[in-house]
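Subject: sequence -> structure tokens, single chain

Hey, anyone have a minute? Need the predicted structure for the following. Not urgent.
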Amino acid sequence: MASMLFWISLTILTSLLNADGSRESVHRIPQEYSQSSIWWHPHYSLKEYQSFQDAKIYVLNVPEYTYEMKLSFHYQGIYLSSHKPCNNSINILLQHGSPAIPYQDEIQGDGLLNYNNTDYCETSVSLSRPQNKNILSPLPGKWYVTAFLPYVEKVKKIKEKGLSKTDDKCLSALSIVQVLISPLKPPVVLAKGQPWSSTANPRFSTTTYYKYFVSSYSKELRIELKNSCPHRQRNCLLKLSLGALSLPTPSSPSCIAPCVLNISWPRPRSYYYIEVNGTSLSYEITANHTECPSNAPECTEVTPMLILDRKNLANSWTFYLFNSTNVFSLILHPDYVGTTLVFLVWPFHGTTGVTYTMCITKDLLPFNEFSKKYCSKKSDGVLRMEFVYPQAGTWYVTVDIQRHNLSLDSYVVFHAKTQTCLESCNKHGSCVIKSDIGVSYGLCECEYGYTGFTCSIYQSLDVLAVCLLTISNIAFIPGIVVACSRKFYPEAVVYLFNMYCSTMYHACDSHGYCIYDYDTLQLSDFYASMLSVWFTLVTMIKIRPLWHRTLNIFALLCLFIGVQLSRFGVLVTAIPGGIGLLFVLLSFGYRCRKRRKCFPSPKRWLIYLLPAFILASTAIAIFTGLETTANYKYLHSVWHIAIASCIPLLLPSVRKPKLYVDYHPVNSDESFRDSDESLLMNVRNTTEHNDGQESEEITFPRLIT
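Reply:
Had a minute. Here:
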């Protein structure tokens, strides 16, 4: 049955095609296309966008003679351990020729211009559904995808690592599916001035592509199309469309045959693609361009600049000295799209009374009526025009000189260069080179307190935060005084070091006043805090001074490694604090068993240890999760006061080391002479000798307290 219906349909179609002209129908045969797919699976942990360092760049290659590019963006963000979704959506910027910069209008610079790229689009990709983007007749070359997380101003809870699974690292995966569609048949290459005849089907609408190369600097491109139709054919219609560098689009210049398309000042050294679509028995197409001779008055000479050596991102062209209007052209290689392109014009030494104007166009000659010009004028000093992350291709610079005094020759100097970072980061940051797959680009790493693409935005000073976080360290002074009065000199040095490091770190963290680099100050603050806790707990243990020194030296070494590896981790605080507290409890328990009564005394528990326990519990609660970005300056200042106030409450009342002087060795063994046992034996022997000679004056060893 199915085969019968197929043959009936084929018979009806054949009869329609063989009918006379009065009943003739035209059927469009779609152009055959080839399709290729490319999958990208870049996995990165994206951060909320605060600077260009938080964005990721991907490069998509588009070959010549591409009819359509279909892009599909799939985004997924999950936490590594909990596998819960994170970051609801990301922003995608797509641009041809160079990477797109988020919030480019906010970039500030002297002479900076924002180039309006027509091949640019912006979209957002959410976790729930993919985002598709179709680009008809894309320009060949590199397309750059910039992905970033939009910054959201919100209050975040500050938690130490290891306390909650919500602190897990978020893994962002962006999958890009690139589908390229190209005509199956290659384009026909037209020769200059030679007509090309072709036969077509008068009953079916067909599409044929041609391409023509404009080899040199020309003032006109001419495309002529002639068609030949049967006398009785009514639907004889041919449409001619023209596109530069890529296939024509619905908005490209077009006409209905017979016709002629004239393009003034076409792009030199570029291919133009021609589309002929419609029905006709035969047609003839001719392409030609009128070259611009060097001595023609209507043709301004264009001075080509040398191609740069692609070794360094910071590079420059030759200096040019002239006294009349000049046009320069330079070719920017794709390796330089991550730089800043700078054009400079200034009067030659001793030249006065001159006004110079500089106009810049991209790809199109400055004489072309459709070219977008960026112009600037100046009468004194250096005229500067800059483009951040410029597009690869040909740039044209027109420098016009207007002399106020025609009798004097006025010379100006023109220079072009590329520099890694714009404005040298305004001396508030360092310029670094970052590389992603297929592209290298320069960006600024700003000093603390500055932000923006060129480190030009100064964050406002929070005076209250600076005062609270620095002045609250005065709470360490009572502990330092008590430690000195009770002869705990090493502990007093540690407390003084902690007060100094904490003050300097928070002055840098809140205000940007950094006597050392930020990482060093942060490390020293965390390290000093851990040492203060450990030294205080060790002083509460009743052991020999030798063991005191051993435990403190061991902690100095281990805590430095732990803080360096994970200064924000909870274990680096919990482990030494827990071990020290365990030693204190064991020491107290041993004393209670030996004395057969409570140690320390109930009075000391009530007046000193219980308030210290309350303060320490408050500090632990703040440290483990009460702090947020909004209340940090208040609660962290309370944390300083609570920790520092525990010191005078926990230090023992007096240090009593068992160190004796004025003794006589009773053992010739050198290894035994200086031991604690020998000191005790001296005392014991002296006492036994005095029992038999009470009349003699006895000198006892003096106990140092």
